[in-house]
Amino acid sequence: MATASVLGVFAHVDTTLQAIRDLRAKGFSDLTVYTPIPVEEIEHEVEKVRPLSAVRLFTLVGALTGTATGFFITIWTSLKWELVTGGKAPVSIPPFVIIAFELTILLGGLASALAILILGRLPRLKPSPTYDPRFSVDRFGVAVACPADRIDAVQAVLSTAGAEEVRR
Amino acid sequence: MSAPPAQSTTAPAQATWADVNRDVIRTIGMPREKYFAWLCLVALVLAAGASAWAWQIWVGIGAAGKRTPVMWAMYITTFVFWIGIGHAGTLISAVLYLFRARWRTSIYRGAEAMTVFAVMTAGLFPLIHAGRMWFAYWLMPYPNQRYLWPNFKSPLVWDVFAISTYLTISVVFFIVGLVPDIAALRDNATGYKRKIYAVLSLGWEGSDQQWRHYRRGYGLLASLATPLVLSVHSVVSFDFAMALVPGWHSTLFPPFFVDGAIFSGFAMVLVLILPMRALFNWYPYITDKHLDAMAKLILVTSLVLTYFYVCEVFTAWYSGDHFERASVFAKASQQYAWAYWGMYFCNCLVPLVLFIRRARTNAVTLYVISIFVLIGMWLERFNIIVPGLAHDFYPYTWGTYYPTITDSAIIVGSFAWFFLLFLGFIRVMPSLSIVEVKEVLPHPLKHAASHGGHH
What we know:
The complex is a heterodimer.
Chain A: E1 3-10, H1 13-25, E2 31-34, H2 40-47, H3 55-80, H4 93-119, E3 140-147, H5 151-161, E4 165-167
Antiparallel strand pairs in A: 1-3, 1-4, 2-3
Helix pairs in contact in A: 1-2, 1-5, 3-4
Chain B: H1 5-10, H2 17-25, H3 33-59, H4 74-98, H5 108-122, H6 124-130, H7 155-188, H8 191-200, H9 208-241, H10 253-279, H11 288-318, H12 322-333, H13 337-349, H14 363-390, H15 405-428, H16 434-440
């Protein structure tokens, strides 16, 4: 069945929260919630049904890659020219820890930024049909994807919860 | 929702979310003539600095006044100074973020921009100092015909890694923080500006899908930047501490450098934020509470620094080492004594004024103290580097360094470079974080009573 989307625009945190709860209770689960800032209460409600964001996996893999690269490049290049410098053995770990540490942070940080882009599906080339410029100022949006024959039900839920404006 | 007391004291009660958008967006756009006048002045100074650099490349590094034994002079002094300036920005944006210090929100964007520009300024100095900067890439490990690799046991190579990591992570952190704010600018702009901001905002919409990964990623970036900021100046201090020069070879250096960095960085934040507050009329966002908090941090870091100074002199005396003692004595009494006592005056005595409560919220007093702190911290770096080298083990090699017009012009030019970048930034990007300032304002609620607690 064809799906349609309905957007409710809210002015308050509590009414937005109410709408999300009511929609979930009625069985509508395909929601997109727009907020100008991350709001803890809304985040809590939305995240209840989801696994934890996978950004941390990216960070971990990036950071460990950095550590490994740091030790590899320092040890491997030292073995290429086995020269005693400063009275220290060619492979002396303490100074190499610094390089490994810096690369851990570097690649860990870059991987985290990459994760924000990949997992958040950024960059987004075309604006979503349900986006409204007010969502970057002081309005909250709840967009519901639902079967075409249930649009009226969704609209009713959004209005009852206190939406300022409901549109298809 | 009943706002916790900390929230209502740091944020003005009357400002709404829409006010924040309006007050930030009005700072962007076509500025008045006065702004261009400043821009021209700064660009002129920068041009003088760039000409001096060109001259130095043309005639050789001798133009910088560096002579044996003082082969590290004002360039390295200023390099360490600028790296230090950057630290306050990362402290505000990463460390205070992790500690959930809410007062940081209205100053963090300006401070973070300062960090990026300060590190960009600092990064020029190793190139200027090394002379033939077109060979700078030799410091990077890359495969070459002769199988030559950098010496990873050298503190100078650690420095390359630390500074380039710091610059990269600061830039990434800065850009990640800017994305949702640029989206707000995009939604308000028209015409070609809208197109530019649309590209820069990466199509950000603030959907739950975007925020959930963003928030995670931002927290992780902050947790990575925290050990980084502490490590960067420690690694910079290794440049000195790993050498055997009297007055340099000390385990005290890493914490000493980090503390000094935060101290000078906060002074620079005040130097930038106070005029911005007045020009942009941001009194509702940057309140006395913020100034008080920054002043207290300057005071604390000043006291810690004083402790380190005492420690430095004490360890020189207690070590029983003749050369260590002679080095301190020479610093305090010989040709560079003015810098030594000037440093004590600016860094230890002047900030004591901040014990007075009214001084901590008075813009003029804070500004004057900040300038003193910046001068004092520059002198501190000078005192470590120049007199240290000028008076080492062997009387025959003692010497005095005299600045030249060339290196002085480059130093002054570096300040122009920094201010040019900052002036440009505040007119095209939001220098107050739209998202983060809203976070500390009361959230809009329809039924205030129905949601009692805030967790």
